[in-house]
Amino acid sequence: MNNEFSLILDDVDNYYTRKIKQFGPNNLGVDWNSEQSQYLRFEQLAKIINVPADFSICDFGCGYGAFYEYLSQQYADFNYLGLDISALMLEHAKKMHPQGNYLLSSKIPQQVDFVVASGIFNLSLTHDKNSWSDYLRNVLDHFNQQSKCGFAFNCLTSFSDKEYMKDSLYYANPGEIFNLCKQEYSRNVALLHDYYLYEFTILVRK
């Protein structure tokens, strides 16, 4: 990982660690406006799962493990690995959802059936947008390498209302991200942009 990517991870770690210290293990602690919108995102990401049970999944940027709770309500048998770069986030995840496996890392250690990531591409802070775009591409390459059946992620959309857009956030062009995934990762790609949030979800099936 180059130096710019390391700086990105350090800044993101510091930001979210401050958030969970301030608000605790809830939607505000991971910078979502509401629990309802948080779970709406989970519903979109979980559409990548096309088997009824007995699958492995990596929750990349798992925070306090809220997606594990969502999965446990939908599936009886799965192997969950939660990755995060904030040690404090993982402390909360282990306490709240001890049935999962957790790792303090920005790299998935072994292949899994599915990789999902919610919100990890949103917060660019002061980083150059071109550098952030390179970082996004690097992470997607990693998802592709480490997923056997597919991966899913979301991004803030460039079709957001201009008056509400913030310089510290990264707004991706959904068409460009869709094309990237079609050209580089799989012929089977879905773009979900119809769930009433200023973002989109991409599903890449293998």
What is the SS-derived class?
Answer: alpha/beta
Q: What's the CATH topology name? A: Rossmann fold
Helix content, binned percent: 25-40%
Largest beta-sheet characterization:
8 strands, mixed
SSE pattern: HHEHEHEEHEEHEE
| Rg of Cα set | 16 Å
User: What percentage of the residues does DSSP assign to strands (E)?
Assistant: 15-25%
CATH class wording: Alpha Beta
Number of helices: 6
How confident is the prediction overall: mean pLDDT? 95
Give me the count of strands.
Answer: 8
CATH architecture: 3-Layer(aba) Sandwich
Low-confidence stretches: none
Distance between the termini: 26 Å
Superfamily at the CATH H level? Vaccinia Virus protein VP39
Give the total of domains. 1
- Structural shape: globular
Give an account of the 3D structure:
This protein has helices at about 5-25, 35-45, 65-75, 85-95, 130-145, 175-185; strands at about 55-60, 80-85, 100-105, 110-115, 145-155, 170, 190, 200-205. It is of the alpha/beta class. The chain has a single domain, classed as Rossmann fold (3-Layer(aba) Sandwich), CATH 3.40.50.150. Strands 1, 2, 3, 4, 5, 6, 7 and 8 form an 8-stranded mixed sheet that branches. The protein is globular and about 40 Å long.
Strand and helix map with partners:
Layout lengths: L2 H21 L11 H11 L9 E6 L5 H9 L3 E7 L2 H10 L4 E4 L7 E6 L11 H18 E11 L13 E2 L1 H11 L3 E5 L6 E7 L1
Parallel strand pairs: 1-2, 1-4, 2-3, 4-5, 5-6
Antiparallel strand pairs: 5-8, 7-8
